[in-house]
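Dear colleague,

Thank you for sharing your sequence with our group. We've completed the structure prediction you requested, and as agreed, I am returning the results in plain text so they can be pasted directly into your records. Please verify that the sequence below matches your submission; if there's any discrepancy, let me know and we will rerun it promptly.
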Amino acid sequence: MGKTRLNGLFAFVVAAVVLGPGIVRADPLASLQDAQERLLRSAQAGKANAAAPAVATPALSQFTANGAVAVADSDGGCETSAILSGCSSSDCLQLQVSGPLAASSPVGKSTVAACLTLYLPSGTGLCYDEQGNGTITATNGATLRFATGGKMCFSDAGSSFDLYITEGGVTFEGGTGAFASAVGEGHLSFPLIITSSGTATGEFNMIGNLAK
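Please find the predicted structure tokens below.
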């Protein structure tokens, strides 16, 4: 915001009015006082009309979090899922994700707990809509909440496993402690391996920009 500073005023105004053949000069002191008053009024008006200081925008910094996580599945959608209203136990599946993370500053070593809803009605092919919410908890107890949405697609099959990959956007939505006002967005990549015995493991990979 610009500032008007009056460090001193030195003005000498000489007014001349021609009356017939003669020239009459105005009083220099009176002219000086008049000029000072006009400048002072102008400065005061400028201060009154000056814009309020802009609210500082928090600085975004790159944020990453990754780690091997455990996955448990069950019928129906997550309670926090936006597509839950269209879900039933026959066309929705929820994935409960949990495990340790290695995250960049300002989160650091942490854990994740998330619930992802897969919408998989019959005839939709090899890719399924995915929505979910989760929380990343730092070792000091501060939490960072996020929401995600995208697609989970079948990628590969082996003699004893199936590989699925989730790709989606991420929005950071505050939390607690140092992350109570956190904002930002990013991307989630989540390969998921389901073995023939029914166990599931995943590799949680998140990258984005975060501001506390």
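Summary note from our side: The beta strands are 16-19, 22-25, 61-75, 92-103, 110-119, 127-138, 143-157, 161-175, 183-195, 200-211.

Kind regards,
the structure core
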